[in-house]
Amino acid sequence: MAAHFDPPEYPCKKSTLPPRPKLTGEQEGKYKQVLQFLQEKTEFPTSEKGAEKNSGPMEPLTDEEKAWLSEECILRYLRATKWNVADAQKRLLSTLGWRREFGVERTRSNTITADRVAVENESGKELIFGFDNDSRPCLALRNGRQNTEASHRQVEHMFFMLERAIDYMPPGQEQLALLIDFKAHTKLGKKVPSMTTGRQVLHILQTHYPERLGKALLTNLPWIAWTFMKIIHPFIDPTTREKLVFTKPFPDYVPKEQLEKEYGGDVDFEYQHAKYWPKMNEIADKKHAAFMAQYHKLGGGIGLSEEKMRQPLDADDQATLVGGMKKLSV
Predict the structure, then answer these.
(1) Backbone phi, then psi, for 296, in 5-degree steps?
(2) Which intervals hold domain CRAL-TRIO (predicted)?
């Protein structure tokens, strides 16, 4: 069987989508309060600290940011704050500031680009590959392939990949699955993330990506990784802790058709950076461009449905989008 080099674009037929929970009347009311709060604001903080102190430079929202502030996004923050309206508003402002400052927004001058973090993935230590049984995009973290020293760029790379995994989400899915493998790579030694990096990533994930983690499967944990997990365990919030699955077979959670042979799947995948990296980013960019095209088609603004924005474009809109992307690439 020929080796695969590219990531799958869509879930396989075996994957399903869990039903979306219905809101109570009280929850609907709280959602509307947060939505109105965001719609009435004209300027927003440009840093996490500025949001916390309600000071510093302020800027209006871009279309990208308005699209991020979807109906589902607001509901994620409300669930994460146990439906406390004031806390949800505060956390949304904090994340907006962080996103602007950190560089995950595509349209800002400080955006983290594929070229900037490409060296971090030359060993294939992180992969967006396949979808789990619930149609969540799978982001594989292969810590044994760590190829660089601890740095801020490592953290940038982690959240660059997380944002790309979000681009891969099909309509109706808001979460991703992490497949974390600690197996040492023979050529790269037995590196594990530093404690500082681990805590920083955990803080960002729990603070600025609430309700985004659906499942985290961990395998091949050596004693040093177990020690790392025990140290960091108290910093993991209870909701995240419930989603951790240790040393269970990956095929129990991911269809074999979209899982590497190394983990019990049927896919003979070979990581070649020169092939995988541009293709993974090309697919993510195409999906994000379609998402934004739907945002404009739906009229724009805060509070639109992510599920609707992730719907496939019709043929005419797709042709217009492809033509526009070709012009941008020239």
Answers:
(1) -70, -40
(2) 116-271
Strands in 244-246's sheet, in edge-to-edge order, are 126-131, 137-142, 176-181, 213-219, 244-246
Q: Note the pLDDT of residue 131.
A: 99
Taking the C-alpha atoms of residue 188 and residue 125, their distance in angstroms, rounded to an integer, is: 11
The whole-angstrom separation of Cα 11 and Cα 128 is 12
> Whole-model pTM above 0.90?
yes
CB-CB contact of 100 with 131 (8 Å)? no
| Helix (H/G/I), strand (E/B), else coil: 209 | coil
User: Residue 142's pLDDT is what?
Assistant: 92
What residues does 59 pair with on adjacent strands? 44
Q: Kindly provide the residue ranges of all beta strands, DSSP E only, lying in the chain, ordered along the sequence.
A: 44-45, 58-59, 126-131, 137-142, 176-181, 213-219, 244-246
CATH fold for the domain made of 120-271:
Phosphatidylinositol Transfer Protein Sec14p (3.40.525)
269: DSSP letter: B
End-to-end CA distance of the chain: 36
User: How many other CB atoms sit within 10 Å of the CB of residue 31?
Assistant: 19
Report residue 148 as tokens.
């660089």
Could you tell me the two tokens for 202? 């955990």
Q: Which residues of 185-195 are buried (b: 16+ CB within 10 A; e: fewer)?
A: beeeeebbbee
Regions of the chain short of the pLDDT cut 70? 1-2, 185-195, 224, 235, 315, 318-330
CB 70 within 8 A of CB 301: no
